[in-house]
Amino acid sequence: MPFRWNPELRPEDITPEELFRQRRRFMKSAALVGVGAVLGMESLEAAETSAPLGEVRSGVVTLNEKQTPFADASGYCNFYELGTGKEDPSRQADRLVTKPWSVLIDGEVGRPGRISLEELIKPHPLEERVYRMRCVEAWSMVIPWVGFSLGALLQRFEPGPKAQYVSFETILDPERLPGQKRDILEWPYREGLRLDEAMHPLTMLAVGMYGRVLPNQNGAPLRLVVPWKYGFKSIKSIVRITLTEQQPVTSWNAHAPGEYGFYANVNPAVSHPRWDQSRERRIGEFLRRETLPFNGYGEQVAGLYTGMDLTRFF
Ligand SMILES: Nc1nc2c(c(=O)[nH]1)N[C@H]1C(S)=C(S)[C@@H](COP(=O)(O)O)O[C@H]1N2
Ligand SMILES: [Mo]
Predict the structure, then answer these.
(1) CB distance 79 to ligand 1 below 6 Å
(2) Among 3, 39, 128, 306, which is most buried by a count of CB atoms within 10 Å?
(3) What domains, with CATH codes, occur in the chain?
(4) Burial (0-12, 13-18, 19+ Cβ within 10 Å), 71
(5) Which pLDDT tens digit goes with each residue over 133-155?
(6) Which ligand number lies closest to the CA of residue 224?
(7) How far apart are CA 101 and CA 153, in angstroms?
(8) Which phi and psi (to 5°) does residue 72 adopt?
(9) How far is it, in rounded angstroms, from Cα 26 to Cα 75?
(10) DSSP for residue 226
């Protein structure tokens, strides 16, 4: 069955593609003649520091919410391999070497194998999707990711009849990545999804943001983005994707099972022992806002959890 985009988005979530493109074109020409800063587009200017991407289909999913400036999205990060401070990952970004890069796809698939990043991306047209992102520490951002559906990729490798979960691993390179010499988590960083979550059209693999190549601190060259789950599910710098029969071990769940569940769906009704999850601070805003169930993507994804007790499977 061909993989189809059918997220049933609310009309207000969607900017008509033509309108979106016109705005883009305007922003680009404005930046070219140097009026970007005057128009408050410092984020676009900052984004110019990383390499441009090729052809990107715009406006596939977008939001009527203010985008987080690129400087915040690339400067305030969680990437413990590059340090536990929010500004460590951008300062230490050069330690991550992303060329060459390959990904091993194995486990319960018909066609396992290691493939180069270029080969992995090639057949997937890149599209921009603006998603809300919510960290368990109760801050959030709105980021224009560039990538493609994970489901489309997985289908190419032919998930077998026993495949029920997908497990992901980040690069392991303690010589270069200072955090991996410390006993914060068990390395490599691991994450996992149920297969139906992985196949959901909102689940994406990102290779860029803000129309540019993904900065290292944001998980270059390839990271997961699951917008209805807390940020720790969105694993960075992926080198291995394994389809499994059993629920995989995931880093934060193994580290503190009472604090971080396997599902990690954004849920204002279930609090983390150390952070209230009912409200969040959008980076750049002063007042907190109410957190939405499933981070606002309930209409699209709540059906995946019908009949489950979400206080138990948090
Ligand atoms: N490999 C790896 N992936 C990771 C993390 C990490 O420490 N290591 N942190 C996670 C957490 S807690 C969050 S909130 C998001 C942050 O993504 P961002 O820094 O691009 O906003 O990345 C997630 N992915
Ligand atoms: Mo996080």
Answers:
(1) yes
(2) 128
(3) 54-305 (3.90.420.10)
(4) middle
(5) 999 999 999 999 999 999 999 99
(6) 1
(7) 17
(8) -75, -45
(9) 26
(10) -
